[in-house]
């Protein structure tokens, strides 16, 4: 309907716009499918230069080389060759082909004045056990809307789970989980010969689901680990002690412990502890009050000199390990002892971070009436839990919606945990090292310099038919 003169003037602008649009679309294809584009261009060039037979011979040679690579060194083949083809295939076949439909059915696409607004599918990376999918939200959306629909998204794209992470305003990254990379036991590494390389802010205690070392902060924090019976709290405890063994041996770290279960846990290697109590009675309370007094004394000495503990103070870093913390501060029948223990633990957790004192507390029941001062533990670890509500009790409100499904951890994978540090929005999934009884004996010998001699358990003598001992 425009005059011919106007059309003539606008035609170059329209032509330039069309060329730019086509180039932009081609660029998107190249960015999203670089391997496919490169193979197609290379095949076209070879076909033009060598003909169909030449192209077939080159393709057969490439296939033979890839098969030999896979046969001789499958680990490097999976690491170098597989990821990009798998990524491009899954992007097209799993996500791109049904993205519009899934967005509509999950109510993540909106229509306004006859125009549909749909979240944009961005960069994708397939890592075998998960697909990392970046998404640009539409205007007015919030990450919480995606968290509520995470289960539906997972089933739509044939995944076992979906986690939602915020990359930056308006941008999300979805993790579609296909298998558990932590299903196998993680053996402990060799004990370090020297203690110089160990950082108390990054103590290695296991492996994360991405294959990296799980490093737990001890300096400047307190750690609360919660898990049901058999969840692997002992694995986490001994993984921490195993990593600290070089510092324990040279006196830079001092361990004190309380095991209300009569030593069923800490009694496996009491030699590495400076002091250890095997009940929840007066001796345990006295130890807690002694540690609290140490905190007060260090604070007084450091006042005006230091803001936080460092090795140059000459004081050892003090780690207080309390197995079954609830037995000491909640289940103790003596009210006076219970109140004294609770006051001492609160003093240590509220004031002990700066003067180099850390509490590692382990328990099964995360309810507020059991541990009313959970907020004083800035690092919280949720191992296998019984109920979904317990996840929020341990890690904080909203963490379960972001994927921290500690209540779904399998009983067959003890040591798997979700860790959350104050100041970090996203939780971390990892598995603690598996420390065997033989490893504990090796650690005790390493720390003390004395060989461990365990008592031999002899079978009961056989009895004859008359009930007497057989000859």
Main attributes of the structure:
single chain, 471 residues, alpha/beta, Threonyl-tRNA Synthetase, Chain A, domain 2, Rossmann fold, 3 domains, 10-stranded mixed beta sheet, 4-stranded antiparallel beta sheet, 16 strands, elongated
How would you explain this protein's 3D organization?
- With 471 residues, the chain is α/β, with parallel strands linked by helices.
- It has 3 domains: 19-81, no CATH class; 100-179, 2-Layer Sandwich (Threonyl-tRNA Synthetase, Chain A, domain 2), CATH 3.30.980.40; 203-448, Rossmann fold, CATH 3.40.50.
- The protein is 40% helix and 18% strand.
- The chain has 13 helices and 16 strands.
- The chain has helices spanning 4-32, 34-72, 74-80, 83-95, 99-105, 143-148, 150-156, 233-249, 282-302, 325-329, 335-351, 388-395, 437-448, and strands at residues 110-112, 115-117, 120-126, 130-136, 161-168, 171-177, 203-208, 213-216, 223-226, 253-258, 275-277, 317-323, 357-363, 379-382, 416-421, 428-432.
- The strands form 3 sheets. The protein has a 10-stranded mixed sheet. Strands 3-4-6-5 form a 4-stranded antiparallel sheet.
- Helix 1 (4-32) runs parallel beside helix 2, helix 2 runs antiparallel to helix 3 and helix 9 (282-302) packs parallel to helix 11 (335-351).
- The longest helix has 39 residues, at 34-72.
């Amino acid at each position: 309907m425009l005059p011919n003169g106007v059309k003539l003037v606008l035609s170059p602008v329209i032509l330039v716009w069309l060329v730019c649009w086509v180039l932009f679309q081609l660029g998107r294809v190249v960015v999203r499918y670089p391997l496919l584009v490169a193979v197609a261009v290379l095949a076209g060039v070879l076909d033009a230069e060598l003909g169909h037979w030449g192209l077939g011979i080159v393709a057969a040679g490439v296939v033979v080389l890839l098969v030999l690579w896979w046969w001789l060194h499958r680990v490097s083949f999976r690491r170098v060759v597989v990821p990009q083809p798998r990524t491009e295939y899954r992007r097209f076949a799993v996500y791109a082909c049904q993205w519009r439909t899934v967005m509509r059915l999950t109510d993540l696409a909106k229509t306004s004045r006859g125009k549909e607004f749909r979240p944009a599918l961005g960069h994708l990376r397939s890592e075998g056990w998960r697909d990392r999918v970046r998404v640009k939200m539409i205007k007015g959306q919030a990450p919480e809307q995606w968290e509520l629909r995470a289960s539906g998204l997972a089933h739509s794209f044939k995944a076992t789970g979906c986690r939602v992470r915020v990359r930056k305003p308006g941008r999300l990254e979805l993790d579609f989980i296909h298998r558990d990379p932590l299903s196998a036991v993680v053996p402990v590494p060799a004990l370090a010969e020297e203690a110089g390389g160990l950082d108390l802010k990054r103590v290695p205690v296991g492996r994360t689901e991405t294959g990296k070392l799980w490093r737990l902060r001890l300096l400047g924090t307190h750690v609360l680990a919660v898990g049901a019976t058999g969840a692997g709290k002992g694995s986490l405890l001994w993984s921490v002690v195993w990593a600290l063994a070089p510092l324990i041996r040279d006196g830079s770290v001092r361990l004190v412990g309380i095991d209300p279960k009569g030593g069923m846990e800490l009694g496996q290697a009491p030699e590495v502890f400076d002091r250890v109590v095997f009940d929840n009675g007066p001796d345990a309370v006295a130890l807690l009050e002694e540690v609290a007094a140490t905190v007060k004394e260090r604070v007084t000495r450091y006042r005006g000199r230091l803001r936080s503990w460092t090795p140059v103070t000459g004081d050892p870093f003090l780690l207080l390990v309390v197995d079954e913390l609830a037995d000491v501060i909640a289940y103790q029948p003596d009210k006076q002892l219970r109140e004294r223990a609770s006051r001492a633990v609160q003093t240590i957790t509220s004031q002990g971070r700066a003067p180099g004192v850390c509490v590692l507390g382990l328990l099964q029941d995360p309810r507020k009436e059991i541990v009313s001062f959970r907020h004083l533990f800035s690092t919280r670890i949720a191992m296998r839990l019984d109920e979904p509500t317990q996840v929020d009790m341990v890690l904080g409100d909203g963490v379960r919606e972001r994927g921290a499904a500690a209540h779904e951890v399998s009983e067959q994978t003890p040591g798997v945990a979700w860790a959350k540090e104050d100041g970090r929005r996203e939780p971390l999934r990892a598995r603690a090292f598996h420390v065997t009884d033989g490893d504990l004996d090796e650690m005790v010998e390493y720390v003390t310099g004395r060989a461990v001699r365990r008592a031999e358990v002899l079978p009961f003598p056989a009895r004859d038919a008359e009930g007497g001992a057989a000859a």
